[in-house]
Amino acid sequence: AMTIPVLRAFSxxxxxxxxxxxxxxxxxxMFSELPNxxxxxxxxxxxxxxxWGLFKxxxxxxxxxxxxxxxxxxxxxxxxxxxxxxxSFVKVATIDKGRKEKRALTRPKxxxxxxxxxxxxxxxxxxxxxGYSFDLSHPVFPEKKKLTPNIIKHTGEKETQWIGIxxxxxxxxxxxxxxxxxxxIKELARNQDIRIFLFGGxxxxxxxxxxxxxxxEHTVCMAGKLGLDEELLLISHLDVMLSMDSxxxxxxxxxxxxxxxxxxxxxxxxxxxxxxxxxxHALTPDLTRFPLIPCSIYGNKVYEGYEHVMDTISPExxxxxxxxxxNSSAKTID
Length: 334
Description:
Elements: H1 4-13, E1 19-23, E2 37-41, H2 50-62, E3 68-71, H3 76-87, E4 91-94, H4 99-106, H5 119-128, H6 149-155, E5 161-166, H7 178-188, E6 194-198, H8 203-214, E7 219-221, H9 228-236, E8 240-244, H10 247-253, E9 259-262, E10 282-283, H11 315-333
Parallel strand pairs: 1-2, 3-4, 5-6, 5-8, 6-7, 8-9, 9-10
């Protein structure tokens, strides 16, 4: 999701250059609005599984006579593939993830607490290594497409302001306490002029979000009801998205939707803040009480005593920030 704004900017600057983007099959709907991007599915659980599967994928890609290969992921599979291309005398450029800087930012001793380059800029740098220069600072977001009848069946026509809330994350350390989130939703649901949509995935999340939606007016659980293509379409129509440090925040930001993120043991300084969002859209714990934040880049490491850092972010703070954005949006419309 963080790569989409980069591809959009690149395509605008170089409309005659065709990109074949390789990723997992379920992500294909994200690329539908990019006309000169061909999506290629890597079936890493089937046809392209294991080393021999990667060799098969390499030969399939090699037959496309690519002029260059850009690795914006830099993990074992992509390293294996790019080295095969390098051995075939194809130009290769690789992302610099800034691992040394990130270790300095997350270590408990001698921490260097500073804003690191965003992942969007790191992705752009890969293109620049091959001579393609473009600017991310003045993005043009796609026009909103009409909602499908299937979406409207769940949402109704848009007659009020719409709020998206995605309360889950891969690690508990990045997830706002559920009881506090319930308080946020309850307070927001008092407003007759808004509608709240809850996003998530998996049976347990569907169960939890359905229960919350049943307890609050103007609140709809969207988890498990739409495919990714329609979910992205719905997200593009939101007036604000509230997300953890997780994918839904990036989905919203790539459409220019104002996105509020709540951070736990990770921090926006790692470079993973949603695209073009103001710094004050990121709600972080009290760093005077928890100066070792960020504990890790992805939230998979928590220092002792840092298990409940999100408790320092009150539901009132979250609601106030959402109201601030909605009021600003309403004034703009007026």
